[in-house]
Structure formats: structure tokens, C-alpha cells
Amino acid sequence: MDELDSGDVFCHNNVVDKTPLNHSVVCSLPAEVYSVPAPDFLMLCKDLIPDFRRFNKPYPSDEETVELYKQEQKWEKYKNYLLESIMVDKQIRRQKDVLRLAGV
Predict the structure, then answer these.
(1) CB-based contacts of 12: which residues, under 8 Å, 6+ apart?
(2) Residue 100 DSSP one-character state
(3) pTM, rounded to two decimals
(4) What CA–CA distance (Å, rounded) separates 60 from 29?
(5) Can you give the pLDDT at residue 1?
(6) Higher pLDDT, 33 or 90
């Protein structure tokens, strides 16, 4: 996922590197988008191609995205387990303190 600002260019890495587009482009807000044919883009931006390559931010593959999602879910599950365990330990300590203070 990425956020674009006014004047930003996207999918240029596929044009510059002559690779197929392997991701989807979705817009969450209304936007005005100009589609420029690859040959025209290369001709108009030929002086900028080194900069495009230098600042190119590759998109993760579907497999990488799925793996990252699985790792995030695993972390969330572990974190929730750990927090529950800590809360149970605190509750047990409180109950022991109450019993100790009551002389039981």
C-alpha cells in the first residue's frame, strides 16, 4: 500500500523496467488520474529515468503480502496470549495479597 500526493507518479517502475504490472491500483478517494502510454512516458521523462530507478519502491508480491499477514496474525495471537497471562498473574497475586491481609 502506498499513499500518493498531488503530482505523484505510480506504476512507472513497470514502464521503466519493462516488467508486467503485478499488483492492483485502488483509490479510496475521488481522484483525477492521467494514463500515459509507456512510449510517451519514456519519451517525456527520459531525463528523469535515473531518478525513477533510484527512488523506485518495489511492491511486495502476493506471496510476500500473505506471509507478512500471517506473521502479523501470529504476533497478534502471541501478544494477546501474553497480555492475558499477565492479567491472570496479577489477579492471582491480588487474591493472595487479600488472603494474606485477611490472615487466611
Answers:
(1) 41, 45, 52
(2) H
(3) 0.44
(4) 23
(5) 64
(6) 90
- Write the pLDDT tens digit of every residue in 39-98: 887 887 778 778 777 776 777 778 888 999 999 999 999 999 999 999 999 999 999 888
Using the structure block, give the residue that is written with the C-alpha cell 492521467: 34
CB 25 within 8 A of CB 10: yes
> Which residue do the cell numbers 488472603 mark?
99
Closest CA to 44 of 12, 18, 20, 11: 12
As given in the structure block, the three cell numbers for residue 40 are 510517451
Judge whether residue 11 has pLDDT over 70: no
SS (H, E, C) 46-93: CCCHHHHHHCCCCCCCHHHHHHHHHHHHHHHHHHHHHHHHHHHHHHHH
What does the alpha-carbon distance between residue 31 and residue 29 come to, in Å, rounded to a whole number?
Answer: 6
